[in-house]
């Protein structure tokens, strides 16, 4: 997969997020401050515009640019988190013009590490990590089993969705939802949901 | 939504432009979002930067000037600014002595400032940070990310800014900022909500006889909601929590009665009347009192009390000259 | 009525007590109603006294201090103080140089101050007075008692106070106060009313999309009521009336954007953004801008614009040092 | 009539004003700021308390004290006006221990001059003067005609009531009502009404 396809995938993420905007915002309304969908949609709209101006074959540069654009347009908590995720992913792809499935998993791994570092958070705190980490683990396992790209991604989105379900059962200990204490139980995390949406968009792209 | 604005997506930049046009001798706006810096850059001193969402005016731009901040960064209303804005601010004000970031304890603020710091450090700029967490309303427990930063932040700006102005080192300035943070506690309440322009509806609703106790500066819920009481009773309730959290006995203090945005000054003075009496009764000496709007929440109606326990050094720095649009000493 | 108070008949004295307790180095309260004087009496200078009803905080007590007033008298909310209160204030601050009373043009205020003056003159105290009438909203016609005095009064305190501080004679101080009055024009508007505590109900009512243009500082009706417009359109409307009333062309000016009490500072800055642009476009130079709460109307939401045409002398006196709780220069 | 009776008359004025308090306030609500009755009642309550502490035969002193008490407790416009009226009346009675009918008219004359001076106002501006001046003129005429005290006062109250009626027909050019311009027409003046109430109280006292 080359730079052109990566650019197309980023556009696919953007339209997926735009479609889910209202729902994400509604989720954030319940346990946060009701801006997650708006924040993410604003950021990906800026990514849309920015990546089309890039004239590079360097996938790392494209991902880093996407990350920096998210960082400088989203704001709040999710801006630095997703921004860092994309930038860290981009660093693993530096100067590369092709991306393989194992490169993709390395990207995701770097993204998880970036979110953990940036958010000072771990799995089980009712955040995007609760979708990201299970998805990464499931995909690593699937690739070891020699599954196809499509099947690997299928396993990943499945695991992410289960992660979102899991966030309903736990108390938030990071981000705004943490102020709610026990009252955060029963509601799914917006960030975990938006990550799952993005993974779904990647799966849809490669199976289309 | 009844507001004196032009368009919801213009409030932040027209606010900053209006502020800079009011105080051109103090403030200059950078061409990268809503960042203001001192018009006369000062070298040979640690540079201070702070900021947060818009809607807290005069914070933070109003505190840029001699003896306080060197730059202030304003995000969208009640939303942390982005790292690139903060980074541009840091680059503009950075000196050989380094830069201190004064951050209020919100996940978004902390992360965005820390990213800006990393960007600046990559450019060889020396950056340190302190995180203000003076709000005693919500307890610092397993289930929170720590206490929120509220009006006590202004004391950090004042005192760390005064020390920086003397040419002190970054470590010393950071240390005195942390001394302020360790010694200041705040708590607020509200009787009427505010409306974020882009949202168009109030952030919460209160009945005609209700108040929200322990509210945050973005209208976040506090400890509880109850029937409105008299000014004295409310004041006692907030003071109880503040005084239980830190040992002020025998100490000299600085007191701030901060209006949330729509509270008449008359009411803030009525509250101070009680604060002064209670502290006197408890043998806590008030060295200086500040009554007014220092860290607001748009047109929210309510107030917060901040009490800073002073020592000789903090006292001296609190008294040191300051010349900014919103704070003069 | 949702207010942070203790009892409707206590608001004035608890307000004054809270103010004096906040600023003991500046203010001392006399034992005769709500009268505050400078804690350190200054001799060898003309003494300035002003006042009016309560509810305009920080006016007038907030302006007592070096370079401004020597005493401020506060009546009941929105009601002129009585002559004996004013007289006690005069007696306390009087010097050989005499006393200047700065009165806002309301029948009650004028009469009560004039009676106090007579009482003081009978004691051999030299007293002069000026009457501020800067509000251009209601025309000065056969059917009125002249224009009302509003936020422009603060410029009178500042400038006459600065001259008095130099030891100038009573006639000179009065003359410069009249120079300010001749050169300052103001106009206000509101989008939400205020409630006098003793009345318990709002002074007027506005629909969700209505505003009152030309409102007075006690919520008195102005020129008309109309549909709420954008901040820029409203600003233009007020500026039109002000600029039509006095020839500011080519002049340097001081501008005050005064919040009525509940207006967020963000909105005042958005208004100043427009004021600055319009004046620049018309070639009227802004020498200094003041944005904040200077002459409020309890929790009314709205603002006024005051524009003072400067000359060299007024400019110098505007810049002269002032050190009071609410105004520092 | 001696000091004791004057004190009784002042108490009578006070209870009359207290009885009319709501009505006076209602009148002021329409063309003023709705506090005239409250202001006057507060002032006369203070007069009640004050004059009982006086141990003097000097009618001038009693009237002056009443005036000063009104001045220092009423506030607004009516405080200085009625206060001045009573103080000026008191000055004409200085050191006197008896008051005759012509003394009373001299008092009222001084009161009118005091209000004119203090209020910088003349007849026809829709103020208390529109009741005071006609009352004074009518009583002066009645005394010339040799009528009894009771009849003189009767003429006075009659004229004052007509003065109140007259205020309905004119535009206010003094006080708060003047901001209303033409809209002040049709409403009677609160201050003219309260003066008439006081004169009625005096009449009731001497004919009781
Ligand atoms: N410390 C953290 N680590 C990882 N994810 C976090 C952290 N804090 C918040 N989040 C994620 O961010 C999401 C909220 O994002 P958003 O609403 O855009 O920002 P904000 O909370 O500042 O309004 C949460 O649902 C959660 O998934
Ligand atoms: N300049 C004046 N001369 C004479 N009477 C006046 C004048 N101004 C006001 N009044 C009288 O005062 C009355 C209003 O008194 P009041 O309501 O107590 O004071 P305020 O107008 O300050 O609220 C008016 O009805 C009118 O009779
Ligand atoms: Mg959110
Ligand atoms: Mg947010
Ligand atoms: Mg009245
Ligand atoms: Mg009145």
UniProtKB/TrEMBL annotation, chains A, D:
Pathway: Polyol metabolism; glycerol degradation. The keyword Glycoprotein does not apply. Pfam families: Dak2. Coiled coil: none annotated. It is an enzyme of class 2 (transferase). It catalyses: dihydroxyacetone + phosphoenolpyruvate = dihydroxyacetone phosphate + pyruvate. ADP-binding subunit of the dihydroxyacetone kinase, which is responsible for the phosphoenolpyruvate (PEP)-dependent phosphorylation of dihydroxyacetone. DhaL-ADP is converted to DhaL-ATP via a phosphoryl group transfer from DhaM and transmits it to dihydroxyacetone binds to DhaK. This is phosphoenolpyruvate--glycerone phosphotransferase. It comes from Mediterraneibacter catenae. The lineage of its organism: Bacteria, Bacillati, Bacillota, Clostridia, Lachnospirales. The gene is dhaL.
TrEMBL record, chains B, C:
Its EC number is 2.7.1.121. The keyword Chaperone does not apply. GO terms for biological process: glycerol catabolic process. It comes from the Bacteria. InterPro entries: DhaK_1, DhaK_dom, Dihydroxyacetone_Kinase. It catalyses: dihydroxyacetone + phosphoenolpyruvate = dihydroxyacetone phosphate + pyruvate. Residues 7-327 form the DhaK domain. The keyword Transferase applies. Keywords: Glycerol metabolism, Kinase, Transferase. Pathway: Polyol metabolism; glycerol degradation. GO terms for molecular function: glycerone kinase activity; phosphoenolpyruvate-glycerone phosphotransferase activity. GO terms for cellular component: cytosol. Homodimer. The dihydroxyacetone kinase complex is composed of a homodimer of DhaM, a homodimer of DhaK and the subunit DhaL. NCBIfam families: dhaK1. This is phosphoenolpyruvate--glycerone phosphotransferase. It comes from Mediterraneibacter catenae. The lineage of its organism: Bacteria, Bacillati, Bacillota, Clostridia, Lachnospirales. The gene is dhaK.
């Amino acid at each position: 997969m080359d730079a052109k396809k990566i650019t197309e995938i980023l556009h696919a993420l953007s339209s997926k997020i735009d479609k889910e905007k209202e729902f994400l915002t509604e989720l954030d309304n319940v346990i946060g401050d009701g801006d997650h969908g708006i924040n993410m949609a604003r950021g990906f709209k800026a990514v849309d515009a920015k990546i089309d101006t890039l004239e590079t074959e360097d996938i790392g540069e494209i991902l880093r640019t996407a990350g920096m654009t998210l960082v400088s347009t989203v704001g709040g908590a999710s801006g630095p988190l997703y921004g860092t995720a994309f930038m860290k992913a981009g660093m693993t792809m530096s100067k590369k013009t092709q991306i393989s499935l194992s490169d993709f998993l390395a990207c995701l791994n770097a993204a998880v590490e970036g979110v953990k570092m940036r958010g000072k958070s771990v799995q089980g705190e009712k955040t995007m990590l609760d979708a990201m980490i299970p998805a990464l683990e499931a995909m690593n396992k699937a690739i070891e089993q020699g599954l196809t790209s499509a099947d690997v991604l299928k396993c990943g989105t499945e695991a992410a969705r289960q992660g979102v379900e899991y966030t309903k059962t736990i108390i938030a200990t990071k981000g705004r939802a943490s102020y709610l204490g026990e009252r955060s139980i029963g509601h799914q995390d917006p960030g975990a949901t938006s990550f799952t949406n993005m993974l779904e968009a990647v799966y849809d792209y490669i199976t289309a | 939504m009844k507001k004196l604005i032009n368009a919801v997506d213009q409030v932040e930049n027209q606010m900053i432009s209006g502020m800079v046009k009011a105080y051109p001798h103090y403030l200059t706006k950078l061409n990268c979002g809503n960042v203001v810096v001192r018009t006369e850059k000062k070298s040979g001193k640690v540079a201070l930067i702070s900021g947060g969402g818009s809607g807290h005016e005069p914070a933070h731009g109003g505190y840029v000037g001699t003896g306080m901040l060197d730059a202030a960064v304003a995000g969208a209303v009640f939303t942390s600014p982005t790292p690139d804005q903060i980074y541009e601010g840091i680059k503009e004000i950075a000196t050989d002595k380094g830069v201190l970031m004064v951050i209020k304890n919100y996940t978004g603020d902390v992360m965005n400032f820390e990213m800006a710091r990393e960007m600046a450090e990559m450019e060889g700029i020396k950056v340190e940070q302190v995180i203000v967490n003076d709000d005693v309303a919500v307890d610092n427990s397993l289930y929170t990310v720590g206490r929120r930063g509220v009006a006590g932040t202004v004391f950090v700006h004042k005192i760390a800014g005064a020390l920086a102005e003397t040419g002190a080192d970054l470590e010393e300035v950071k240390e005195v900022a942390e001394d302020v943070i360790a010694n200041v506690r705040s708590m607020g309440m509200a009787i009427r909500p505010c409306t974020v322009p882009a949202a168009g509806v109030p952030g919460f609703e209160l009945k005609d006889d209700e108040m929200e106790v322990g509210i945050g500066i973005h209208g976040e819920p506090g400890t509880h909601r109850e029937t409105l009481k008299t000014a004295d009773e409310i004041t006692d309730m907030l003071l109880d929590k503040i005084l239980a959290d830190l040992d002020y006995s025998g100490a000299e203090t600085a007191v701030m009665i901060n209006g949330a945005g729509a509270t008449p000054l008359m009411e803030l003075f009525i509250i101070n009347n009680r604060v002064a009496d209670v502290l006197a009764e408890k043998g806590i000496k008030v060295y200086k009192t500040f009554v007014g709007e220092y860290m607001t929440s748009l047109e929210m109606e309510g107030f917060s009390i901040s009490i800073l326990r002073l020592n000789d050094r903090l006292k001296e720095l609190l008294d040191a000259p300051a010349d900014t649009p919103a704070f003069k000493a």
